[in-house]
Amino acid sequence: MADVHLSRNLINQLVEDEVKPKKKTKKAKPKIPRQRQEPEMKVHRKPIPNDSETQKESPATGWPPQMPFFLPTPIPHPSSSPELEAIRSLLKESESVLEKLQRLEENMSKEV
Fold this sequence. Notes:
Distance between the termini: 121 Å
Strand content: under 5%
Number of strands: 0
Largest sheet: none
Shape: elongated
Helix content: 40-55%
Radius of gyration: 39 Å
């Protein structure tokens, strides 16, 4: 049978490793070489035609242009807050009372 001997240093290291939080190693990011920009005079670029010229020159290919799509405004969800519901019901009642008062005012002004 083989004997296993642990030194005090090894035991201390194991105990300290459990107490200390392990450090996360950073992954090395590969360096991307930057391309040197050549002087403007040496670069010969082909002019890019605008969209109106390309549509006139070539027949339409691919998907036809679509009109913008507008979604209807969302219907307000009934709130779970009883305070908000009480405020909304009070607001509706006050609006109806206001309408009644406006009608009465119109009738009184017609009589006078």
